[in-house]
Design brief:
- The structure is a homodimer.
- By secondary structure, the first copy, chain A, is an alpha/beta fold.
- The first copy, chain A, has one domain (7-156, 232-294): Aldolase class I (TIM Barrel).
- Helix content of chain A is 39%, strand content 14%.
- In chain A, helix 2 (52-70) runs parallel beside helix 4 (88-104) and helix 2 crosses helix 11 (276-294).
- The longest helix of chain A has 19 residues, at 52-70.
- Chain A is globular and about 60 Å long.
- In chain A, 59% of the residues are buried.
- At the A-B interface, helix 3, helix 4, helix 5, helix 6 and helix 7 of A face helix 4, helix 5, helix 6, helix 7 and helix 8 of B.
Chain lengths: 299, 299
């Protein structure tokens, strides 16, 4: 169980410090991903009619109930922007409401939006992300690292896509450079350098990295190249990474990574269970327990 | 001036065919970028009070008036999603309204969102893009090309970021691979291959490429690697690419590229001119005339 939020946890204006303090508070380096799709919602929250406004209302109910169910166990929640954007302006309203709910319960909020652009445009995306109340945003490195700076203003952080867990990412991220590095390793080196100017009291940077643990030993080499980056680690469970793989994303002191799980937690109740939220809470508690123990935050 | 829309132009369900037919109809291979920011709006459309709801209303008025001013000259309009997203759900409503307006006046619509993700998430982004009525979406290649497929469904197309016009992009896109290609060239080769399955009657693919003309001769080499890709070409004017640079993005037959201009057109009126929309129309007409002549669509 997470300790009740105290004044200590609200004093930090550095995103890595806040994130790690939330991890300490819940004794679990984990994040639940909220990427709700209509077809998988429990019947008890689904709309009786298939209309856009009733469907987005069902997404809203589900999001809020999941957040309430997991808040006692989980320090960080990640919102998949696309799942809300597909409902247009109503979806954005629901997204921001849910982000606000998570923050009000003391959780750190990641907006998984994978944004990336140049110049002034990035300032608009960063403003949009903060409008919803995010602490961190996921971003793409393809246009370079300098353009990402607006995402780091006002005490915000950004997780840069470095090595993603999907099969198709190899075609880009595993390309071999003339200097012997892969593209992902080159991104890691640039990221480590770009993040040097923003190290918090915790020793970690406001620029983190998305690194999946589904690609052989790639994540081990990337961990060595980015000692001061927090890793956001997808791929546990549904996507095939095991506990041992994921643990290699942490530094030797048991810190430095946040493991995400989505479907394994938010759909734990099944579609027909009217008490589905209890199953979600149980799954969240077990997920937190497993990784809290594995990294030594729980005995 | 564009010809009035006829039945011929509405019969195509392939995005490249639609785009090129729009170019023919207006005798100009050009696109105007709508990326409105409050500080640059003409005083006559600005709100009297600085409140979010009045500001987004000003963005809406400006967007609609620009679209009406340029519709007689310009075949394609590109909406910068971030400029609307920063206003939250109200901004999305304004964006979709403006996209709908452009489509109703016969223009092809590009949503410049630079999205990229994996699996089901891409389907949500693609659904979101179509919800607004886009013909094309800009997307990022960093997670691989297979995940982009949902953006190509229902007669839609996608412009993939290959070589962007910003200075910082060199650090990623100019990295040299062991096989002698740059990262951008490798992306181009993969893009050309991924686009082979979706060639329209025009000979162009539903997968296009964003290629700036501000990087020496990079765009010339990329043109040769992607003969069947439509190029969306930023960087003309404000970002430093000249007419001759940009013309090298076209194929030898004068087709294959769409040149974008934003600030040079949408802010042509200046902030104090109550008749600013006339200046916008004049700038759009001149932009269309310059490139219509340059590629031989006008005498």
């Amino acid at each position: 169980m997470c300790r009740v939020n105290d004044t200590e946890t609200t004093g930090h204006n550095h995103p890595a410090d806040r994130l790690l303090q939330a991890v300490e508070r819940c004794a679990a380096p984990v994040c639940v991903g909220l990427d709700p799709v209509l077809e998988r919602l429990p019947m008890s929250v689904r709309a009786e009619v298939d209309l856009p406004e009733s469907n987005v209302e069902a997404i809203s109910r589900f999001s809020i109930e999941v957040i309430e169910a997991i808040a006692a166990h989980i320090p960080v929640v990640k919102f998949q922007s696309a799942c809300y954007e597909r409902f247009g302006s109503a979806g954005i309203r629901v997204l921001h409401h849910a982000m606000d709910k998570a923050a009000s319960l003391g959780m750190q909020v990641i907006l998984d939006a994978k944004r990336g652009d140049i110049g002034l445009t990035v300032e608009h995306y960063a403003a949009s992300s903060r409008l919803g109340g995010s602490d961190w945003t996921t971003v793409s490195p393809y246009l370079g690292f300098n353009p990402l700076r607006p995402f780091l203003e006002s005490g915000s952080g950004a997780f840069v896509l470095v090595r993603t867990s999907n099969p198709d990412s190899d075609a880009v991220q595993s390309l071999m450079l003339a200097d012997g590095r892969t593209v992902a390793q080159a991104m890691a080196d640039q990221l480590a350098q770009a993040g040097e100017g923003g190290i918090g009291a915790s020793g970690y940077s406001h620029l983190g990295a998305v690194v999946g643990a589904t690609k052989g030993a790639d994540h081990v080499a990337l961990r060595a190249r980015m000692p001061q980056q927090l890793f956001l680690v997808p791929g546990y469970g549904a996507q095939g990474a095991g506990l041992d793989d994921v643990l290699e994303c942490f530094n030797a002191d048991g810190r430095g990574a946040i493991v995400t799980s989505s479907r394994g937690v938010i759909y734990a109740g099944g579609v027909d269970d009217p008490n589905w939220a209890e199953a979600v809470a149980d799954a969240a508690a077990a997920f937190a327990e497993d990784f809290g123990q594995a990294v030594g935050l729980r005995s």
